[in-house]
Automatic annotation (TrEMBL), chain A:
Protein name: Peptide ABC transporter permease
Annotated ABC3 transporter permease C-terminal domain residues: 247-365, 632-746
Record-annotated membrane-spanning stretches: 20-43, 240-264, 297-315, 335-359, 411-431, 628-652, 672-703, 723-742
Subcellular location: Cell membrane
Tree of life domain: Bacteria
Residue stretches making up the MacB-like periplasmic core domain: 23-211
Major subcellular location class: membrane
Topology relative to the membrane: Multi-pass membrane protein
Species assigned in the record: Streptomyces curacoi
Automatic annotation (TrEMBL), chain B:
InterPro entries, per database record: Tscrpt_reg_PadR_C (IPR018309), Tscrpt_reg_PadR_N (IPR005149), WH-like_DNA-bd_sf (IPR036388), WH_DNA-bd_sf (IPR036390)
Domain Transcription regulator PadR N-terminal: 5-79
Protein name per UniProt: PadR family transcriptional regulator
Domain Transcription regulator PadR C-terminal: 91-168
Amino acid sequence: MRATLRWAHSDLRTHRGEALFLVLATAGIVVSLLLATALFGYATNPWQRVFTQANGAHVWLHTSSSADTGRLSSVGAVESVAGPYPTATTTVAARGTRASVELRGTPERPAVDRPLLTSGHWLDPANPDGVVLESRLARALLAAPGDTLTLPGTGRTLTVLGIADSAEPRYRPGEQPGLVWAPPSAVREPGGQVIGLRLTDPDETDYAVQRAVTVLGAGAVDEVSTWKQARAEAQGDNRLLGQVLGLFGLGALVAAGLAVHGAIGTRIRGHLRDISVLKAIGFTPGQVVRVFLIQHLAYALLGALAAAALIQALGSRIPGRLGDAVGVWQGLPGHTVALLVVPVGAVLFIGATTGLAAWRAGRVPPVPVPRPAAPLGGRLSGPARRGLGLRVPPALVLGWHRAFTGRRRSLATVARLALPLLLIVVAMSAWTTIDRFDSRPERIGLPTALTARADSGLAERDARALLERDRQVAAAYPGVEVAALVPGQTATIALRGLGTRAEPYPYALAEGRAAQGRDEAVAGQGLLDLLDVKVGDWVRMTVGDQPQILHIVGRSIEPENAGRVISTSLDTLRENDPGLDPTLYELRLRPGADPQEVADRLVTAGAGRLDVHAVPNPADGLSPLRGVVVGLIAVLALIGLIELLTAIGGTVREGERDLLALKAIGLSPRQITAITVTSTACTALAAVVIGTALGTPLAHWLIDAQGRSSGIGAGIAQGPSAALLLLYGAAAVTGAAALAAVPAARAARRRLADTLSAVA
Amino acid sequence: MRLPLLALLARGPAHGYELKQDLEQTLGSAYPQPNVGQIYVTLGRLEKQGLIEGEDVEQSSRPNKKVYHLTDAGREALRAWFEEPEDEPRVRDEFFMKLALAPQTGLADQIALINRQRRQYLNTMRQLSKLAGAEDRDNRIAHLLIEGAMLHLQADLDWLERCQEELEELE
Amino acid sequence: MSDDSTPVLRADGAAAPKEGPRSPVLRAEGLVKTHYGEGAPAYAVRGVDLAVRQGEFVAITGPSGAGKSTLLHLLGGLQRPDSGSIWLDGECADKWSEARWAVERRKRLGIVFQFFNLVSDLSVADNVELPALLAGVPPKRARAERAELLAELGLAGKERSMPGELSGGEQQRVALARALVNRPPLLLADEPAGSLDSKGTREVMRLLSRFHQRGQTIVLVTHDARLASAADRVISFFDGRIADDAELDGGTPSRRAGISGVLELRD
């Protein structure tokens, strides 16, 4: 044991740099995997917790006030019913912020989907104007129990009695109205009613919806929302972030495993003599294997422990969503298990790759023999010979030759170096895509930056005039957004009519063409998946009690509503309903305009009759992703560095053998150094080319797959610009050459006697 | 023996016994011990050839001893000796005779001959080693002599190996 | 064949010769080893029988390529014979796995090669102490043994040097120290002076003789006749087989006056 430790200790002293890199790389990988776990936990769990605690309803149906909801409880799959509650959609304002809300008249605390009070208390019959706000709405309005809300345009006020969590789809400014529970007396002019259904079997949701809609009559149902939608929306970006981190973490883990394997293999090849001597002295093969295994396991363990400790201690202090996620995750039940399992798993994986390589060390024969002439190599190729003849510097030719004739081993080196480079290219693509969300939102399906809603008092012409008067507004597209029941009646989708045929809305199209003629529309990926149709099909849906038939001629990129949107022009919808007035206006701003500034100006100009919100950009939720991408690139660069150092070490060692011969030919030490440097640079170049060639399509595929699954739709992927790729490639090659220069120069100037002893 | 004696006399005049002592001292114990009588005989011959000249010296309680010194002719002969390179040492033809003639006599086996000769060489080598150990460290000439003998022995042993290889092939 | 050459000088702690019937330290019977490389198979060892007694100094000579090194590797367990048996100290080693051989090599065998005796990563002190630590000797005692051996071999100041900084002769002396640190009953040496000049060869010879005088059993493979002549017993190895096995004594006195007839004075 002591002998093993002695050997391991001195081995560590000679390979300090490599050990450090391995520790750091393992730490980085484990950090990313732990963060991914945290984000996943954070994503799913809170909503699940709320749903369970609140005895949540699986289906929410918004119907007209006259619908007969009594028969719903007789639908087979329904366990219990919440409501019906009268609802009214209005706007409230607090401290200057406005929000559109759904006032729900709840006589007593519902049994199904019971709101979980976080502060204050429930409705009080003594206080007819007291209401309870949903927590996200309250946060947006900065309201606390005791505050007063005004209803603009009516002069009424409401008092906030409490704030509660709910498992329903939450408030999203401009998209989803917030939920306010009020005594039924406070709900004047109810516009409809809402019923919640709790099902015996959550998997039967589609069936239950269908049955419910049939029972109620399709014309009576305005909107359907299910628990799956609520959950997906609650998870939202966290899930994406978690997926990205997890994917990269795993990819980096594989790359690190390969790097360790390669490093050990190269080290063994350089130390064949020493291992033979050790075996001759009396080290058993098992001991030899154990030394390598334990060494590298120790490095990996150190890195993993450091990472776990770091996350545990400082994780919740990370700014932004990541910190929140870690904070919440630390309180979840599965936390300790995950904190143990993830680092142990990473260490075991690295241990497995180490074991493979170390096993080979154990098989080195105990007879120390002069190093056999390397079996690699081949004849100088024709072009190389001609190059020499044409006075191409011999160092370049020989360097090229050394890099690329050696079949398996040089291929393996290039492949192992290409893997982290490939992953870096994928990371850069992710960065560029997110960047485009910010800088060119019109390409990602967000051509307009602001949505304006006008009070019913403002006519369309006046509203448009008001909006377009602002000098930074380039165009205002009128539109409506309604909920429509799909065929099969298992869900409602958003049907939008935006723009007119004269001034069409500039959709971002990924497939097909824009909707021009009658009954033509473009749909988002989410919708196509939901209805199981493709571009070119006709779909029929019910709006209110009116059927609407549309021909899908194109697919647009839809970041809203999980892509379950079908869009056509206002004129098409007006054909069915001539009296249709636009309820919203999408505003396209001039380049360089600040949306918030323009919004404030318009609200002021509208004198309280305009409600202007910024259109949510998915990239906002993804901004932590940028920091993550940078961190991942750093970890991958470390792994690439390990691979590079391994490759350089191997090349230098093999080159020692030829030192004398090259000097005899007449090459100066500088030229001999240049051979090694060129060979390393060529290897790096090949790796960069392969990494880029494979990485760019892979990145596109990955990002598009993610887009498709989240409903935004494929086609959002943006590869890094050609200039960036060239810079990256140049940096990699020059970096490799620079790293190779020092050891190569040292080797070229070794005294002849040393070389003899190295080779003999 | 003639020219070595001339060389010794070139250092200065000496008589026979002194010459014997000089020889022993210079060459060390590895060199075959010269016979005193042989020295006197050689000195006589040299004097007859005119290369040295002797002088009688009176001694009180002993017979006269003759002190010799080098003549010009002797010096000339000496210079010629130094300038001329020597032939290589002779090959051991007696052993080779045995080896070559052993087959078909029915009296000796070639391999056995080689083995016996090898043992002899090894024993001789051993004795040379002992001599080298016993010899005074500073007597470089003596050590060089012993080393020369050893190297010759090594060469002979290598040659024995070659003989064995060739003969094994023939069988 | 003189049997009773008990060593006169005996330094402390040397391998004490067993009293009573002397079982051979090493015995081999019918060893066969063939190398299969590119081209025709090479019959390195063809049916070799060998017995080495305690305190013997055996030299194995022969032309290069005859298989001497292979024979030594077989005796040290570094290679497996194709057939035949080996007994170390009376214990049969046929069934020993590579790991078992490694354990035995720590205490029972010391091995010195022509090149590559030292681990290039470790200092001289570490190199010498390693077998002791492997054998379970407490570090303090290992250090003491190491200091003693290095002093004896004239390397007192070089504990911290790396092998790359030493000359060839110094490296071989360190290798000898390493091989002898556990006082193994048997020392195997494969061309220990093969890469040295004549001065280095003399040093090695002197050291081997000194340890032999203290009772160390040595099996030496060499093509240098001078080294071979330092042994008690010379085995001529030829083409995979033992051609001659001779005990060296002073030899019969030569017929001629003078030791070597080569130095004959011409009259």
